[in-house]
Amino acid sequence: MPRRLARWLTARGHDTLHTLDLARGNRTPDLAIIELACRDDRIVVTKDADFVNSHLLLGRPTRLLLIATGNLGNLDLERLLARNIQALEIALEAHAFVELDLETLLVHE
Fold first, then answer.
1. What does the alpha-carbon distance between residue 21 and residue 43 come to, in Å, rounded to a whole number?
2. pLDDT at 97 (0 to 100)
3. CB atoms < 10 A from the CB of 64, how many?
4. Separation between Cα atoms, residue 43 and residue 33, nearest integer Å
5. Pairwise CA distance, residues 43 & 36, whole Å
6. pLDDT per residue over 84-101, tens digit each?
7. H-only helix segments in 40-73
């Protein structure tokens, strides 16, 4: 996910970290990201199916937002999130795995 997205979420009051904020940056292994998210009760926001597989098979990360839009410019991604931010916040309060595509917000049980 673009760093710009993390800053966008921070500006809206969310406590965010981007991989570039971590010591190993974008080279941070998925397992380290998962451990950090679980330890600090963070939501992993990703386009990466590896996190989905880990969540479904191992329950880790404990909370996950999958952005399933394919290639989408940063501005279009911000617009998509802006249109859906309230629904996302509500869904992620009550559910561990939420998926957002261009037209649908899907809550996985």
1. 16
2. 98
3. 24
4. 10
5. 10
6. 999 999 999 999 999 999
7. 49-58
Closest C-alpha to 63, from 40, 79, 41, 39: 41
In which order are the strands placed within the sheet that holds 105-108? Answer: 44-46, 64-67, 97-100, 105-108
Sign of the Cα pseudo-torsion (35, 12, 47, 104, in order): positive
Distance CA 21, CA 98 (A): 24
CB neighbours of residue 5 within 10 Å? 17
What's the one-letter identity of residue 22?
L
Query: Residue 74 belongs to what H/E stretch?
Result: helix 74-94
Looking at residue 73, its amino acid is: G
Q: pLDDT confidence of 30, banded at 50, 70, 90?
A: very high
User: Strands, DSSP E only, in the chain?
Assistant: 44-46, 64-67, 97-100, 105-108
CA distance 95 to 52: 14
Element (H, E) at 79: helix 74-94
Query: 38 is written with which tokens?
Result: 């679980």
